[in-house]
Amino acid sequence: MRSLVEKGYAVAIDNGYLVIRDIPYLDAQKQLQWGAIVAKLEFVDNLTVTQDDHQIWFAGSVPHGLDGNPIPNLGGGPTTLPLDEASKDVVVQRRFSNKPKDTGKFTDFFEKIESDVAIISGPAMSLHSANPYTFRTVEKMSDSVFKFHDTLTSRAEITDLSSKFANDVVAVIGLGGTGAYLLDFLVKTPVREIRAFDPDVFHVHNAFRSPGRLLDEKNELGKPKTEVYGGRYDNFRHGLKVERKFIDSSSGADFEGVLRKPRCQSQYKSNARRRRSAFTQ
């Protein structure tokens, strides 16, 4: 990634995707056009990425060669890919599949992008002396509730689905055998805020009806459930508020802004199926 920046590519990382703007190419009339390359990022940790595959998306029309014909051997075809709000200027129109003949796999992102740029931009660089090395920085990135890069969304290509939950506020009343599992699933969704309430203490029997393992090093037994679950998920996301509190008719203020009415039933079921499918892939 650093090599791409140092060479001058307009690199941005947005919601699990590598986005490279300012990619020159020729249209059918051999006029200079500008597009963008998008590729999936597979984060090993917060700093290290690896390639998902040899494919890329392209924001632009069909790239043409100096002979006025579409560039051959790019594979793929017309497609769309919803990106996050920060990349709304990048409108994906097609997908390309091209890998090195000798090895069948690129060694790193630098080799992959350099290869694709040589194919897509080569004619424009030759005819119009254009190049993609603009050294432009795109600082705007999507805000995320997660403390890790959400590569599930990009891997499953469900950015459009995830964006529907971005402003939701959800409450979980009780962290027992049902509420604890609901909380475990919810913290891994991009809802803006989760509020969880439970007045009780975490005992041995709770360890048998809650997700994950008992963390002996944190001395979880005998602590309030809210402290236990708050500690388990604190390093995973922002927007999680857990309170040791009994909910009754006087607790209305605790639910201000909470989503109370589900969306259209058919849409709700469709969204749930897509997100669940992404978790199981």
Summarize the structure.
This protein is an alpha+beta fold and 281 residues long. Helix content is 26%, strand content 20%.
Textual characterization of the structure:
- With 281 residues, the protein is of the alpha+beta class.
- It has two domains: 2-128, no CATH class; 151-280, NAD(P)-binding Rossmann-like Domain (Rossmann fold, 3-Layer(aba) Sandwich).
- The protein contains eight helices and ten strands.
- The strands form two sheets. Strands 1, 2, 3, 4, 5, 6 and 7 form a seven-stranded antiparallel beta sheet that branches.
- It is elongated and about 75 Å long.
- It starts with a helix and ends with a helix.
- The relative contact order is 0.13.
- The mean pLDDT is 85.
Compile the SSE list and pairings:
Layout: H1 2-7, E1 10-14, E2 17-26, E3 32-43, E4 49-51, E5 55-59, E6 77-78, E7 94-97, H2 109-128, H3 151-156, H4 159-163, E8 169-173, H5 179-186, E9 193-197, H6 204-207, H7 225-233, E10 240-243, H8 265-280
Keywords:
single chain; 281 residues; alpha+beta; Rossmann fold; 2 domains; 10 strands; elongated
Report strand %: 15-25%
Please give the number of β-strands: 10
- Provide the CATH top-level class of the largest domain: Alpha Beta
Main structural class: alpha+beta
> How many domains is the backbone divided into?
2
Shape: elongated
The name of the CATH topology of the largest domain is Rossmann fold
CATH superfamily placement of the largest domain: NAD(P)-binding Rossmann-like Domain
Which regions contain 5 or more consecutive residues with pLDDT less than 50?
none
Q: What is the end-to-end distance?
A: 27 Å
- Assembly state (oligomeric): single chain
Using the CA coordinates, give the radius of gyration.
24 Å
Q: What summary fits the major beta sheet?
A: 7 strands, antiparallel
Contiguous helical run count: 8
Element order, helices and strands? Answer: HEEEEEEEHHHEHEHHEH
Percent of residues in helices = 25-40%
